[in-house]
């Protein structure tokens, strides 16, 4: 309602008279009119509130803007100050260069080079200071002058003590300068002064005004005919002024007393301070020559040295690392041979920081190539460059670490390409071949890059060990699965061992580690295999009916003979009963072949750690078969086959066990004691009982067998 | 910078000279503030000003208390140049300080180039009679030789303290009047007289 009313007011054709007329014609009675009035009043109130709010907002905005402006103003002021500083710096460089060229004989003793820098620094400050003082630049001509104190003072009438004007005073180490304020049209920027007078501290009497009636905090300068009174703003300032003046005076006296003997010696700092300028003009000839003899010339840096940091930056940026390194080395040599000066120190610091930077860049480079996906061998080759530089820059350990990481990555990448296809054997073969040859190659490469660094060699050994451990654990997962038979396993393990032997060429033997890792799964597999054999033997034993073997053809017979000969278990002639008949059962023959195979496998695997397990497996498998024979002999069911059994038992005793003992001894180097015991027991229990008892010669088994059977 | 009120009130500039430790500052402080400072602290150069009534006339006295030791002769000269009258103080207990007065006198005369400069020879520490090293006769002999008054003072007891300052101020005042008169007309004569005196001496 009120909004509608407000809209009504806003319209252009609104005229108060008409509105009132309209209102009065519509309204009925005083009550309604009053109601309308209240409405309008309400509107007026809300509008005035809005207006207030508006004003307030505008006011806030105004304040903020003003703040911003003042902020900007200070910034502008700072900027202008910076600019003026820079200008003065530039002008100093200009004048310094002039000085160097003008006074070629401005000689510095080694210690005074540093001093010269100090002097230049103070000069720099002085220039900044005097920039604001008109007509004061002549003060710069005195070498060694520096400002000790400055401040604004109020000059008073010396008689009446009435204020005269504001001045700015500068206390230097040798003079006191009074400068008057210059009207500064632009109120911003540093205040400007105009030099008024210079008092020599040697003749200026400075009097502390302790009591001048109402005038406080004043001091007096007496320099005939002038008597001037200055008032400080506070007690501290006054005390400082007097103290600094006194200090300056004392310093000057100290310097003067030193100066006298120096005139004869001509070689200390003071001379530089106070006599350089004199000697320039008056004592040129002889004195100057003496000085040249006694001191070095101050040599500025060669041009390349001045630009060395920039050059280094650009070299690094353009990846000319070798060039950067050479430059750093060159600079270091120069620094070592040069006299120490602040400039030199600064440059040294810069060079050091650049060399750290270079190291960082190189390290980063290596790290990146470790992370890189495509390692086509190029990674290693390019890394060699970075690594070599790092070694040169005494970061061998870092380089070594990074390089080995890179090697790991590259090895991993290469092994990834070996796809698991087909059976286990070729896969294992390929994988271990590639892995070991790569480890070998990488190690060789490593030794080439890091020659004669023992720390790195040990790092390499550790790396190899780690890599092999990783590889073998992977291989174990692949090999020791139920589908893989012992003979296949043996083949794989032998292969891996052979590959591992490669590394011995470099003096690294990891076979012990390999064996150690293989020990546990291998023992388990051996035991499992043994059990499997035993089960098979039991099954076959239960089916054994003790019949002579009939080979049916001569060819078969000859084949069998050759096969057994090959296995080292030749068929004794006594066993050949007929053309194709032999007095050994099929079971015996099968077992003999199987057992010799097992034995060979086991002996191929045997290590000192696994020998126990292997022996146990071999013995227990054999025992099962022997038990079968024994039980058969004492079994009445097979009474008529006793001779056959005897022959079989004899074959076992003489040929199979004999062969086992022989093989074992030839591989391991000592007797298979457990088997010997078993053989004896077997002989005693089976052969002697069933046959006529006779002593068993313990030692010469082959001889026994031959004499017995031939 | 109107000089009218200043001109109405005369300002007499007195300088205290003498070796270190003879009591220049003690005399000054006793005169200024009626107090005796027992502690000794070497003065560098202090200035004091006081309004006093000299023979019924209100004047200002400006005392420059100088250092006994000043390394630069040029600075000392500047002190002396600013003075109109001198209190040359020595300690009667120290012969060296008495001997040094000779040098001060010579320097002052050289700087001021005036034989008749207002000047008082002051033998301080008269309260320490038992330690006296410089006899009254000796001191008086020197003052007569220079043609200046000799007064013995004690900054401690305030004996003759006001006297030396007031005597000196009177001398300064009379000299100023003399000079005024001389510059008003008899300048030539005075110069002549001075010259003559120098020749006689």
From TrEMBL, chain A:
InterPro entries for this protein: Cullin_repeat-like_dom_sf, Exo84, Exo84_C, Exo84_C_1, Exo84_C_2, PH-like_dom_sf, PH_domain
Compartment(s): Cell projection, Growth cone; Cytoplasm, Perinuclear region
The keyword rRNA-binding appears for this protein: no
GO cellular component terms attached to this protein's record: exocyst; growth cone; perinuclear region of cytoplasm
Family indicated by similarity: Belongs to the EXO84 family.
Keywords for the protein's UniProt record, in alphabetical order: Exocytosis, Protein transport, Transport
Major localisation: other
Protein transport recorded as keyword: yes
Biological processes per GO annotation: exocytosis; Golgi to plasma membrane transport; protein transport
SUPFAM superfamilies the UniProt entry points to: Cullin repeat-like, PH domain-like
Domain PH: 147-252
Gene3D superfamilies found in the cross-reference section: Exo84p, C-terminal helical domain, Exo84p, N-terminal helical domain, Pleckstrin-homology domain (PH domain)/Phosphotyrosine-binding domain (PTB)
Protein name: Exocyst complex component 8
General function of this protein: Component of the exocyst complex involved in the docking of exocytic vesicles with fusion sites on the plasma membrane.
UniProtKB/TrEMBL annotation, chain B:
Bias (Basic residues) ranges: 189-201
Signal sequence range: none
Main subcellular location: membrane
Keyword Nucleotide-binding recorded: yes
Alphabetic keyword roster: Cell membrane, GTP-binding, Hydrolase, Lipoprotein, Membrane, Methylation, Nucleotide-binding, Prenylation
Molecular function terms from GO: G protein activity; GTP binding
InterPro entries: P-loop_NTPase, Small_GTP-bd, Small_GTPase, Small_GTPase_Ras-type
Region (Disordered): 179-201
Protein's membrane topology: Lipid-anchor
CDD domains per UniProt: RalA_RalB
GO cellular component: plasma membrane
EC number: 3.6.5.2
Pfam annotation, one family: Ras
Coiled coil spans: none
A biological-process GO annotation: signal transduction
Compartment annotation: Cell membrane
First-level EC class: hydrolase
NCBIfam families associated with the record: small_GTP
Family the entry assigns: Belongs to the small GTPase superfamily. Ras family.
Protein name: small monomeric GTPase
Source organism phylogeny: Eukaryota, Metazoa, Ecdysozoa, Arthropoda, Hexapoda
Gene transcribed to yield this protein: LOC105364542
């Amino acid at each position: 309602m009120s909004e509608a009313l407000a809209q009504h007011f806003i319209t252009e054709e609104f005229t108060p008279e008409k509105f009132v007329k309209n209102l009065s014609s519509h309204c009925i009675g005083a009550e309604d009119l009053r109601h309308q009035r209240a409405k309008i009043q309400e509107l007026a109130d809300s509008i005035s509130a809005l207006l207030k709010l508006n004003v307030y907002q505008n006011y806030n905005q105004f304040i903020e803007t003003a703040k911003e402006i003042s902020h900007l103003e200070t910034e502008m002021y700072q900027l202008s100050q910076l600019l003026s500083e820079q200008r003065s710096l530039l002008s100093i460089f200009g004048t310094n260069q002039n000085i160097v060229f003008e006074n070629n004989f401005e000689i510095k003793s080694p210690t005074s080079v540093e001093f010269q820098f100090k002097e230049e620094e103070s000069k720099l400050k002085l220039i900044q200071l005097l920039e604001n003082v008109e007509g004061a630049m002549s003060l710069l001509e005195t070498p060694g002058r520096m400002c000790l104190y400055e401040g604004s003072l109020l000059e008073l009438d010396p008689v009446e003590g009435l204020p005269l004007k504001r001045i700015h005073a500068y206390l230097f180490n040798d003079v006191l300068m009074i400068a008057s304020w210059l009207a500064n049209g632009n109120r911003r920027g540093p205040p400007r002064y105009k030099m008024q007078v210079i008092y020599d501290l040697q003749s200026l009497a400075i009097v502390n005004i302790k009591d001048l009636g109402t005038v406080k905090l004043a001091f007096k300068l007496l320099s005939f005919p002038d008597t001037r009174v200055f008032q400080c703003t506070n007690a501290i300032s006054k005390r400082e002024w007097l103290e600094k003046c006194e200090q300056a005076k004392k310093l000057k006296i100290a310097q003067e007393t030193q100066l006298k003997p120096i005139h004869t010696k001509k070689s200390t700092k003071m001379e530089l301070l106070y006599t350089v300028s004199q000697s320039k003009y008056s004592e040129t000839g002889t004195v100057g020559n003496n000085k040249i003899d006694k001191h070095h010339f101050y040599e500025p840096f060669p041009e390349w040295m001045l630009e060395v940091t920039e050059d280094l930056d650009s070299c690094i940026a353009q990846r000319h690392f070798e060039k950067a390194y050479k430059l750093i080395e060159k600079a270091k040599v120069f620094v070592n041979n040069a006299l120490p000066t602040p400039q030199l120190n600064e440059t040294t610091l810069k060079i050091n920081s650049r060399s750290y930077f270079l190291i960082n860049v190189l390290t980063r480079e290596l790290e990146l190539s470790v992370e890189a996906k495509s390692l086509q061998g190029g990674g290693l080759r390019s890394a060699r460059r970075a690594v070599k530089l790092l070694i040169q820059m005494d970061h061998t350990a870092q380089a070594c670490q990074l390089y080995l990481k890179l090697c790991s990555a590259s090895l991993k990448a290469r092994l990834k390409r070996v796809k698991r296809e087909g059976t286990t054997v070729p896969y294992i073969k390929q994988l271990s071949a590639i892995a070991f040859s790569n480890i070998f190659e990488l190690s060789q490469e490593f030794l080439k890059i890091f020659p004669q660094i023992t720390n790195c060699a040990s790092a390499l050994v550790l790396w190899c060990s780690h890599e092999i451990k990783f590889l073998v654990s992977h291989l174990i997962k692949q090999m020791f699965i139920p589908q893989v038979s012992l003979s296949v396993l043996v083949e794989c393990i032998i292969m891996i061992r052979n590959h591992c032997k490669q590394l011995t060429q470099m003096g690294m033997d990891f076979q012990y580690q390999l064996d150690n890792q293989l020990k546990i799964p291998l023992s388990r597999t051996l035991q499992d295999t043994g059990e499997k054999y035993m089960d098979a033997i039991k099954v076959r034993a239960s089916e054994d009916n003790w019949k002579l073997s009939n080979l049916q053809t001569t060819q078969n017979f000859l084949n069998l003979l050759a096969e057994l000969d090959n296995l080292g278990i030749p068929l004794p002639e006594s066993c050949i009963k007929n053309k194709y008949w032999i007095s050994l059962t099929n079971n015996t023959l099968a077992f003999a072949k199987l057992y010799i195979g097992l034995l060979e496998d086991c002996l191929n695997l045997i290590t000192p750690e696994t020998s126990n397990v292997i022996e146990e497996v071999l013995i227990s498998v054999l025992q099962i078969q022997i038990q079968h024979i024994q039980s058969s002999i004492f079994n009445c069911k097979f009474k008529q086959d006793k001779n056959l059994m005897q022959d079989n038992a004899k074959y076992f005793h003489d040929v199979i066990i004999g062969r086992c003992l022989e093989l074992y001894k030839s591989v391991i180097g000592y007797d298979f004691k457990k088997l010997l015991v078993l053989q004896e027991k077997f002989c005693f229990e089976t052969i002697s009982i069933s046959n006529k008892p006779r002593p068993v010669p313990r030692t010469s088994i082959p001889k026994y067998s031959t004499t017995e059977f031939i | 910078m109107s000089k009218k009120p200043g001109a109405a009130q005369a300002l007499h500039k007195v300088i205290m000279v003498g070796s270190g430790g003879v009591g220049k500052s003690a005399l000054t402080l006793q005169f200024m503030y009626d107090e005796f400072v027992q502690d000794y602290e070497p003065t560098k150069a202090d200035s004091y000003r006081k309004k006093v009534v000299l023979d019924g006339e209100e004047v200002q006295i400006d005392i420059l208390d100088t250092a006994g030791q000043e390394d630069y002769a040029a600075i000392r000269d500047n002190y002396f140049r600013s003075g109109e009258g001198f209190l040359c103080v020595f300690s009667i207990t120290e012969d060296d300080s008495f001997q040094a007065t000779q040098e001060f006198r010579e320097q002052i005369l050289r700087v001021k180039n005036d034989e008749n400069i207002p000047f008082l020879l002051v033998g301080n520490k008269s309260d320490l009679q038992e330690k006296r090293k410089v006899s009254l006769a000796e001191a008086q002999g020197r003052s007569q030789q220079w043609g200046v008054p000799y007064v013995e003072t004690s900054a401690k007891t305030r004996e003759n303290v006001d006297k030396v300052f007031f005597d000196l101020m009177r001398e300064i005042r009379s000299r100023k009047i003399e000079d005024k008169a001389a510059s008003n007309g008899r300048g030539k004569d005075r110069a002549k007289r001075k010259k003559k005196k120098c020749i006689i001496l």
